[in-house]
Amino acid sequence: MINKFPFIVIVAKFLLKAVKGLKLHPEADEDWAFQKISSLAMLFLIPWLYIYGLGDAGGRDYNQLVFWLQNPFNKGFLILTIIIMMSHARLGLENIIEDYIHHKLLFPIALYSVKLGCKFFMIAAIIGVFVGGNGG
Asked: Which DSSP string do the residues of 6-38 spell out, in sequence order?
C-alpha cells in the first residue's frame, strides 16, 4: 500500500532526517514531523472534501448527502480527514499554549482542555459520520 505513494515516504523520511539534526526533545521531533506530514495530507484532503463532498451541500437535500456518505470510500476519507484535521489542530493549539501561557496554574489546565476538547470533537464528528451515513 505504501509503495503506491512514494512521494509521501520520501517527504516523511526527509522531514524526519531534518528533525533528527536539530537535537530537540524526542517528543517534539515526532510532533513537528507529524504536523508537517498532516499539513501535506490536508493539502489534498480538504480540497477533496470541498470539491467532491460538501462543497455543493447547499444544493443537495438530506437524502443526497446521506447517499454520498453511504459510499465506504467517502465515509473512510471523511473520517481520515476528521482525524488528521483534529490531530493537527490539537498539536497547533498545544504549541501556542506552550509558547504563550506561562502561568503555573493555567498552563496544565489549558493543555488538558485542548486535548480533551479536540478528542471530544473528533469522536463526536466520527459518530456523526456513522449516524448520518446510516440515514439516522
From this structure: HHHHHHHHHHHHHHHTTT--HHHHHHHHHHHHH
Cβ neighbors of 31 (< 8 A, separation 6 or more) are 91, 94, 95
CA-CA distance, 16 to 37, in Å (whole number)?
10
* pTM (predicted TM-score): 0.75
Which of left, alpha, beta for 5 (phi over 0: left; psi -120 to 50: alpha)?
Answer: beta
DSSP secondary structure letter of residue 71: S
Can you tell me the distance from the alpha carbon of 107 to that of 119, in angstroms, rounded to the nearest whole number?
Answer: 19
Distance (Å, whole) CA 75 – CA 13: 29
Which CATH architecture fits 2-133? Up-down Bundle (1.20)
For 42-67, the pLDDT digits (tens) are 998 888 888 877 776 667 787 888 88
